[in-house]
Write a structure and sequence with these properties.
This protein is α/β, with parallel strands linked by helices. The chain has a single domain, classed as P-loop containing nucleotide triphosphate hydrolases (Rossmann fold, 3-Layer(aba) Sandwich). The chain is built from nine helices and 15 strands.
Length: about 350
């Protein structure tokens, strides 16, 4: 069974997604509530299978619809970002070292922002503070000018470790559908349509009845991404989602993200990616935040202006791509020596 899954694995087929520029799109109406993914009595584990202790955290909402089928949304005031991080500081104990110190930046709706920095600089800590899973020691995070004090209903977080993100006793279809189980505002047909669309978007149509153990690592991470997409999040957070897969699989997953951005461009989906891979950040993002060594702050903010659609071969060979990469290496080298700067400069590399 595993062999069949591997043979048909779409991870070996790179898909090039066209780049879009959804900036300036309307901000959707906030919806009711959400919760972390939890198992229910009806979803019992198979013998010998452990319940995941750290699963995909899905937090999201729906757009209200006009009779025409277009989204009804509240406009974000001109110049007002959808997400604002203001002077975040974090210590894990009163006398412990600072992990983050004066971390500040903003994200506009529809942006694809990548965050890179030295290993252990606090990137994942920062992401958990942004999504309300970890309380900052000082500073605040605001989503559409509302302070985040708990996981917002408009965010979805995809963790790095896909082996702990999925329920091994559930099929692909049921894993993707699971977070929608308690959504009373959606009919059975609407849930089924969302699940089918999410599975198709990540290239797993035909694998709905497979279980995680029958899939390759890259395919399992696609399932985790599909489960987040089924919620239709307004902000998709990704914590080094491709760190545990091989190079070829990683390229396929990167192109899947480009396809996702294109697919959900009309809703203005915003993406925030934490990665240690500089090339990945340049290939995927419209903007890159370079963090300093701990205690982390933003050392520099770069605007990535590369032509689309982006291609694994052509884009990575462009002189501009190589120039940006060399610049980030230089910035990170300076950051490691000097600890970065508190007032981040925005540049086009």
């Amino acid at each position: 069974m595993l062999g069949a899954a591997t043979e048909r694995s779409p991870d070996r087929i790179g898909k090039v997604g066209a780049r879009t520029s959804p900036a300036g799109r309307p901000t959707p109406v906030s919806a009711t509530d959400s919760s972390l993914v939890k198992s229910t009595p009806g979803d019992r584990p198979m013998p010998g299978k452990a319940v995941p202790t750290e699963g995909l955290t899905s937090m999201t909402t729906d757009l209200q619809q006009h009779p025409t089928g277009r989204s009804s949304a509240v406009q974000t005031p001109s110049g007002s970002p959808i997400l604002r991080v203001d002077e975040l500081r974090k210590r894990y104990s009163d006398d412990g070292p600072l992990v983050c110190d004066g971390l500040s930046f903003s994200v506009d709706q529809g942006d694809f922002v990548a965050i890179v920095g030295p290993s252990g600089c606090g990137k994942s800590t920062m992401l958990r503070m942004i999504c309300g899973l970890l309380e900052p020691s000082a500073g605040e995070v605001r989503l559409r000018d509302q302070k985040i004090v708990s996981p917002p209903p408009e965010m979805a977080l995809v963790f790095q470790d896909y082996t702990r993100s999925l329920y091994p006793w559930l099929s692909v279809e049921r894993n993707v559908r699971f977070p929608l189980a308690k959504r009373r505002d959606l009919s059975k047909e609407e849930k089924a349509a969302r699940v089918a669309e999410a599975i198709e978007t990540v290239g797993l149509t035909g694998f709905e009845s497979y279980h995680p153990g029958q899939l390759s690592g890259g395919m399992q991470q696609r399932v985790a991404i599909a489960r987040a997409l089924a919620f239709r999040p307004r902000i998709l957070l990704l914590d080094e989602p491709f760190a545990s897969v091989d190079a070829l699989t990683k390229e396929g997953l990167e192109d899947t993200l480009l396809d996702v951005q294109k697919q959900f461009a009309d809703s203005g989906m915003t993406m925030l990616l934490v990665t240690h891979d500089i090339d990945e950040a340049i290939y995927l993002a419209d903007r890159i935040l370079v963090l300093s060594k701990p205690p982390c702050a933003v050392a520099e903010e770069l605007v990535v202006d590369l032509p689309g659609p982006r291609s694994q071969v052509e884009t990575r060979s462009l002189p501009e791509f190589l120039r940006i990469r060399a610049h980030i290496h230089d910035v990170m080298g300076l950051s490691a020596q000097r600890g970065g700067t508190r007032g981040a400069a925005r540049s086009t590399a």
